[in-house]
Amino acid sequence: MDNINIECEPKSIGIRLPLQLESKDLFLHQNGCLLLVSEDELKFINEKRKYNNSKNSILEWGEDKKVYLTEEGDAFIINKPLGEGKFGEVKLAQNIDDGAFMAAKECIFSPRGSEGKTKERYFNKEKENLQGLGKLAGQLNMLNKESKQKTIISIFPYVHGIDYKDINNLNSKKTGLLIVKAIEALAEFHDKGYLHLDINPGNLKWDEKEKKCTLIDLGNANKGLEKKDVTILGPQGALAPELDPDKIIKVGRTYTTKTEMFSMGILIEDLLDKVTDKNSMEFIELQTLVAALKSSAEIRPDTLETIKKSIEVAEKIGLDPTYLNSTKALFERMAAKMILEPLERLTQELNKITISESLKIENVGQPAVTFSNEAEKVASNTPYILPILENHFENPIIISKIGIGNK
Ligand SMILES: Nc1ncnc2c1ncn2[C@@H]1O[C@H](COP(=O)(O)OP(=O)(O)OP(=O)(O)O)[C@@H](O)[C@H]1O
Ligand SMILES: [Mg+2]
Prior knowledge:
alpha+beta, Phosphorylase Kinase, domain 1, Transferase(Phosphotransferase), domain 1, 3 domains, seven-stranded antiparallel beta sheet, 11 helices, disordered C terminus, binds adenosine-5'-triphosphate, binds magnesium ion
């Protein structure tokens, strides 16, 4: 009888290879890991790690073999280029202990000049943001004493997919999916309490298999949803008009979630410029998003309104509803936060009502909702409370009788 031993299957058999790799680039190791180094190379690297104590340094051998050793004691083998930006070259990397694919962004500069200072600031900021989001795998800082050149290398997770800037020849419906997911990615970033401040098609990646958009390039991003600044940040050519860099008095210019949404409007406009069916109903629908996001600050939708609008458009153009599950879940989460946070604040202030008392459900035949006076005051000043209540309680008539409406 044949002996089938499932345990023999390599652990990493289901691994998704980065687009830049082929299976022949990888070696299968005894522990089931698929690595970019052979068994001999792995032994060599581990010997060096043990005896050299060479942390925060680069180990090089052969023609172009390189390993970055971080302060934390991790080792990353460096492979093919992933892309290049203003601040540095990004290469594919792999953690040789667990096989995880990473990206390594590297920059060599003279720390003296103003350009060097800008680069250093960018790398420090990106490090801080990646750390804050739990995404930094390590950063190497090295100074070449002879040339006085500084090298900084940041290592963070590899993101599957292609840049939005390289997307061409799609029809409007497919582009619509990429747009909804771009809005979702930005809204999620805002939900985590960050502004990205450089929304442009080179900083968004599309993963076709997962139908997911990921924001990259966090060197301009800011913890906090408002940033006052006198310097010009953000995507060139896609700055909201209220941030007009030609203003003589630059003080008081404030980047907000709404200024980000303007940049998103420009990004969507650029994507729509490249679609194959400009006369379609889907194209016209998607243009309504551009018009809303490019409108003046007073009437421009905020993050939550933008997600809501994008879901409505997605439904009109007939996108597969399963693709919208995560978008809808995010909308609900953010909307609930907008209701609960003010209610919680009010509860604390008055120190007498609690959320459960203020949102009392009476089970008389059908569920109804009653509010205490104070809670009602807050609720009526809280946008989006109606759709949320309607979703949670099945009797919208009673809710609307209370007089709590949309914004
Ligand atoms: N985590 C990642 N996974 C995969 N590819 C990446 C990753 N980060 C960056 N890249 C690739 O490298 C390119 C440059 O990266 P990034 O935008 O972060 O660099 P940058 O120097 O800040 O660029 P710029 O400021 O000019 O936009 C990206 O457009 C992308 O193609
Ligand atoms: Mg970039």
